[in-house]
Amino acid sequence: MIAIVDYGMGNTASVSTAFTNLGYEVVITDDIQLLESATHVILPGVGSFKAAMEEINDRNLNAALRKLAKEKPFLGICLGMQLLFEKGFENGETVGLEIIPGTIDKIETPHILPHIGWNKLQISDKHPAFNRFEAKHVYFVHSYQANTAEENIVATTDYGTKIPGIVRKGNVFGIQFHPEKSGEIGIEIIRTFMNETANR
């Protein structure tokens, strides 16, 4: 069973549909016992870093999510990816889930923000499972980006600056773009995450 974390700020319906279409049983929940019983945990998100962390803390999910990320395959999508990091600076400095080292900062680019639209991926040669997504286009909507060590970066995109598109630390993955809105390529990226974590 795939558990999608419901903390009131996620695009849970479309993310759920993406996993259901791949044949997985899905539950949308903020119940810690249900999250603990899942094989994989998905943290979606739409909105601001600060507001999201306030919701997570108000629902007493912070410690549980940190624990689950050590025990199970864990995927953060869009804002959910950003929450995996140590700190975010949207609407003031806010402590994140501190699962992946790094910060979430406003994109420094000559282009218009937010970054909205289709951009192509560049895949790190350290992550061969994702090689087939080199130069494939996926759909982004964001104004903030992760700043983290190269060893944590699976894929980047260019928007007047290099932006991490996929990150990974052990069994924890983060996807900055919306795979559920990126057509067949997005679905195949979700499938790759599931395949990469099948035995964890």
From TrEMBL:
Keywords: Amino-acid biosynthesis, Cytoplasm, Glutamine amidotransferase, Histidine biosynthesis, Hydrolase, Lyase
Every Glutamine amidotransferase domain range: 4-193
GO BP, sorted A to Z: L-histidine biosynthetic process
Residues of the signal peptide: none
Residues annotated as the enzyme's active site: 78 (nucleophile), 178, 180
Alphabetical list of CDD domains matching this protein: GATase1_IGP_Synthase
Full protein name: Imidazole glycerol phosphate synthase subunit HisH
Species whose genome carries this gene: Saliterribacillus persicus
Gene label: hisH
